[in-house]
Amino acid sequence: MPTLPRRRLLKLALGGVGVAAGGLGGLFALRGAAPEVSGLAVLSPHEYRTMAALAEAMFPGGAVGGESLDLARAFDGYLADEAEWARDEAKQALTLLELGPVIFERRLTTFSNLAPAERIAHFTRWGVSDNGLRRQVAVGFRKFLCLVFYDQPVAWAGIGYDGPMLPEATP
Q1: Number of domains within the chain
Q2: pLDDT, tens digit, for every residue of 7-51?
Q3: Residue range(s) defining the domain that contains residue 84
Q4: 8 A C-beta contact, residue 79 and residue 42
Q5: Which of 71, 69, 78 is nearest to 42 (CA)?
Q6: How many whole angstroms separate alpha carbon 60 and alpha carbon 93?
Q7: What is the helix, strand, coil percentage profile of the chain, to 5?
Q8: Residue 124 is inside which H or E element, if any?
Q9: Has this prediction a pTM greater than 0.90?
Q10: How far is the C-alpha of 59 from the C-alpha of 158, rounded, in Å?
């Protein structure tokens, strides 16, 4: 069995590291810059942008849309009270969703950079995927966003809910 000379082995190893670093650099370049968002407790601006893009895809437009209700900020507030491991998993799920078009569809774009209709189609495919992790991420995000969206009084008319039967207690 032939052996590789040490110099050749080092060149191959360094070349592999360079390719891997270039790949990671390429992913960060595809992601682009996210606008600064003030007052976030847990999420980075990139993670906030991904969640906002998902909320807008699930609840598009108008005064009662995902963007106008700032569901991404609600997600950040929810994570602030969670255990560290739960925060880490949620952030990993957001990163996976953001890079989903690159990883699973071999497209040179990220979730936040997709057109709104493409975001909806991409996220819908996650919910019916053969990949259990993708389905789990889709179900988790869908449940959270629906819970927060339909908790807003402005969303009640759209589903025929008149509000709580008992009046709110006054302090």
Answers
A1: 1
A2: 555 555 555 544 444 455 555 556 667 668 888 899 999 999 999
A3: 35-152
A4: yes
A5: 78
A6: 22
A7: 65, 0, 35
A8: helix 116-127
A9: no
A10: 12
